[in-house]
Amino acid sequence: MKFNIDTLPVLFPYPRIYPEQYEYMCDLKRTLDAGGHCVLEMPSGTGKTVSLLSLIVAYQQHHPEKRKLIYCSRTMSEIEKALAELKALMKYRTEQLGYEEEFRGLGLTSRKNLCLHPSVKREKSGSVVDARCRSLTAGFVKEKKERGEDVEVCVYHDNLDLLEPHNLIPPGVWTLDGLLKYGEQQKLCPYFTARRMMPFCNVIIYSYHYLLDPKIAERVSKELSKDCIVVFDEAHNIDNVCIESLSIDLTEDSLRKATRGVNNLDRKITEMKSTDAEKLQNEYAKLVEGLREADEARNEDAFMSNPTLPDDLLKEAVPGNIRRAEHFVAFLKRFIEYLKTRMKVLHVISETPPSFLNHLKELTFIERKPLRFCAERLTSLVRTLELTNIEDYQPLQEVATFATLIATYETGFLLILEPFESETATVPNPILHFTCLDAAIAIQPVFDRFSSVIITSGTMSPLDMYPKMLNFGTVIQKSYTMTLARKSFLPMVVTRGSDQGVVSSGFQIRNDPSVVRNYGNLLTEFCKLTPDGVVVFFPSYLYMESIISMWQGMGILDVVWKYKLILVETPDSQETSLALETYRTACNNGRGAVLLCVARGKVSEGIDFDHHYGRTVLCIGVPFQYTESRILKARLEFLRETYRIKENEFLSFDAMRHAAQCLGRVLRGKDDYGIMVLADKRFQKKRSQLPKWIQQALEDRYSSLSVDQAAAAAKAFLREMSVPWTRAEQEGVSTWGPEDLARHKAKMEIEEIRRLEEEAINANGAIGDVVMEDEFGGDEFDDTVLAELDV
Amino acid sequence: MSRAAQRSGATPSKRLAEDGDICPVCKSSRYLNPNMRFLVNPECYHKMCESCVDRIFSHGPAPCPIAGCRRTLRKAKFRKQTFEDIQVEREVDIRRRMAKTFNRREDDFVSLLDYNDYLEKVENFTWNLINGVDIEETEKTIAAYAEENRREISRNESVAAQEAQSRKARAAEELELIRLRREDARREDELERREKADMRRGIINKLATTDGDAASIAREGQRVVLKKSLARRAAIDKQRDNDPFAASTENGEASSGLIFKGLKKWVPPAPEKPYDPFGGWSVENEYFVLQDHYDWDWLSQAQTDIRHTAGGYDVNDYCARALCEAFSGFGVFIEDEVAGRNVGSAPSIATAAAAVTGSEKPDVNMDDIF
């Protein structure tokens, strides 16, 4: 359907639109017009992606400057979905407009998914594919080939050089599969096509990491211009992604490998000295000049400022004591040896970067400055030595990145050494966590660089947490509710068992037999009454295991077994995917199944249980993080000190966003229905932290139920849902055709006019009305005054 | 020394890898003696167990028991090995010595490039010493340098020591601050909890003793709680803003014994001059001199009349204006100007005037006119 938002003509590829989609688009447009950032929460399964894409594409095509869209999503499947949506949208636009627009939309993913080289694509691990690809496609390999040396190259990659660099692929939207097929036909490398075409695309769809991870962002995203529109979809976890991208864990094993890497480098340097000393000399001369020349290559404006490489560092020359290759190698050796000695300590250490640097200097005479240049210097050396088997140097690179990070940032990071894996372990297995505590560091360049950043997801409540944590300002923060023709989901909070005993996964009572039995009863009740699939979420693997074994002892599993097939998620991803497959088969052709999984596991994020795959979700216990973890403690402290976010506030926010994610798994659209059960006493008080759309549906009378009451309510709900129902009933209420939209617009206009009129009247009669107004709003007025007086 | 160094570089590391826990002298292993500790002597870096050191070197200096190494070692010099790799251990010792001599700082140099060259040179010397290249010569150069620059070296040393001290003080202060803040947060939580409990008890008491509407009492109670917490938060914010410690950390400065190097001296900005609309171009009256007093009888009345003076009227101003107007036509020769305009054939009067004034008074800026 076609409609206008203000003056912007939008083509929406479906005949009907949801009211919240329309509202969402209006707010998006306002954000784009204002040129700022926004946080939007829209219920899952209400077509967030398609409304986003159709609005932004319309915006692009309408405005002459054609701002580029960078759409970041989290998983491969979501990227593919978005690409498919985009393709459908563009097809629809062509049909409606009657001509094809000059438009390119591409998705980018790792080499592993896009490789066509006959032997390389058969490799299983992504890093091996990367390394082998590099060894076939690096610049010097081609030079060697031109010199007539016998080296292996990749035909797919080299064919690209024969084409015009801005026209490697015809306009249109290319899904990943489509790209692969086209590549196979034309014998072109899909990966490099996508990467090189990025500056010429209207829409780019890729994973968060290409923008947030400094190591990749530098290489992939540097040519993007400032007026791009950046969208982070499914962004409820974005702070953790930011933190992970800047955190490094070192183990003894990785240090050992790093040492091996350094020794290899040493050997290579000696070799090169005897054969091709000139090259080393060239590199040396360049480094004397500084990184300036490299800086020129990364054009001021186009360069994505990189957290590990601050601007001032680029303008400086490499310090003299690591300019020569052999000096640098000795330097690295010394640094690694130092880390090894640090690892030998048998008690937990947590220290700040400045204190680490001090100690380092006392012991090994390594100054802060050369340390900062470590990563860049290593890259330069690897390039000079023309190393092909990069994967061998992975641990070394990690150490170098660590060095650069620790010397660059004084605050926002913490070094934690844990010599033992667990409290009870006696054999030391030290891990050096270099953790980033401040999510804002990684994402700051994105906010600084791009004028419009849109953060959106199905579950982001409370919305103001994200601007606080990521340290940015927003134009619009909004949470949309779900308009429903019938009440299609039933959220409930279960606080007691049938015996009126409290249920909770709180630490003190979580292993009480009575609590476990009550949870067991809850499970059996819902397995009895639910048709098809039931999904159960536990706060942790540990708790899940203990509770399952207790259920086994109590005979609860035997009862459940009568009604449903029982499947369990494990940390192993292969096992889990097998379990999922079995679960789906069972849901398709039997009494259904129950899947027991973990609220922070793989299943809870990104796997949909639409329709009969999930009719009930049970959230057993509040999914708090493991609070004894030192990293978490450090982060909490940091949040408190820097952003004034209290510990409990953050923990509860984090728990509730995961709970909301779990609940959102079963409802994937407006014709879907499902029961959501939150089974913990503590949920009663945390209701206000759920997303608005769930809160709205959670009635007061369902906010503190016992197991039997919940079962009765669920039965009634399911009976209601089983009444035959057509889509026609939705029309005009939860889906709008063009007429409905027009009606809505007219209504909005009338309201707007009324509002303006009222304002005008108010302004005129303000003086006369004072007394009256006071009478009306007396209570509130009083309140605020009192509060102010108190202050 | 070079021979020894080379050998020690090659052999011990290999041995370490093979049998890390066996003493090369007495061949006892960790299995036999679980508390065995290894020591090295920075003369030759051969490691041996503690008991061997005691046995061999207790009675004064003795040659190293490792075959082929004839260095004389003393017990006092033996110490624990910090690094696993013995080569690095040795390298660090050399570096320690070098760092003592070559302690130039970046601001001793004119440009960064010079400093980097210096660093590289020092690194080269160190490299030579570590790998045993031209040791004698290098040592000689280093000694000469140390002799020449003794004063600078000691100065930089003291600066470095001072810096270290201030850094330590600052770190301690920061630690203390963090501890205080943590304590504060804890106390705050505690207070809040207690207040909440009190309030709840209060409400329950009220509910029990009075017989008003239960809902309204509860609401009232909640309002009081909210207000109190707001007030408390504001108080905390205020306190934080006033906190002298907090302010000092934000500025990143500590109060005592801290010397910042490379800081430019703060120069107070020159006081701003009053605004001059003509840009320094003043008009002097060259055709008359203003007198203090004029005997114009029609004016004397006004001069003394309180009704005029109260309003700020000054007869002198009147006189000055009257005279200025009277003479204002002098010195302007219209024929000359018209002729000049034709000769210059300037496109506009403004440019001509600007050109004239510009040539006469250099401080009138031409750009300003447009």
TrEMBL record, chain A:
Gene3D superfamilies: 1.10.275.40, Bacterial XPD DNA helicase, FeS cluster domain (1.10.30.20), P-loop containing nucleotide triphosphate hydrolases (3.40.50.300). SUPFAM superfamilies: P-loop containing nucleoside triphosphate hydrolases. Its EC number is 5.6.2.3. GO terms for biological process: nucleotide-excision repair; positive regulation of mitotic recombination; transcription by RNA polymerase II. It comes from Glonium stellatum. Transmembrane segments: none annotated. Signal peptide: none annotated. It comes from the Eukaryota. It catalyses: ATP + H2O = ADP + phosphate + H(+). It holds the Pfam family HBB. This is DNA 5'-3' helicase. The lineage of its organism: Eukaryota, Fungi, Dikarya, Ascomycota, Pezizomycotina. One of its GO terms (molecular function) is damaged DNA binding.
TrEMBL record, chain B:
GO terms for biological process: nucleotide-excision repair; regulation of transcription by RNA polymerase II. InterPro entries: MAT1/Tfb3, MAT1_centre, Znf_RING, Znf_RING/FYVE/PHD, Znf_RING_CS. Keywords: Coiled coil, Kinase, Metal-binding, Nucleus, Transferase, Zinc, Zinc-finger. Its main location: nucleus. GO terms for molecular function: cyclin-dependent protein serine/threonine kinase activator activity; kinase activity; zinc ion binding. Residues 135-188 form a coiled coil. Residues 23-66 form the RING-type domain. It is found in: Nucleus. It comes from the Eukaryota. This is RNA polymerase II transcription factor B subunit 3. GO terms for cellular component: transcription factor TFIIK complex. Pfam families: MAT1, zf-C3HC4_5. NCBIfam families: cdk7. It comes from Glonium stellatum. PROSITE patterns: ZF_RING_1, ZF_RING_2. The keyword DNA damage does not apply.
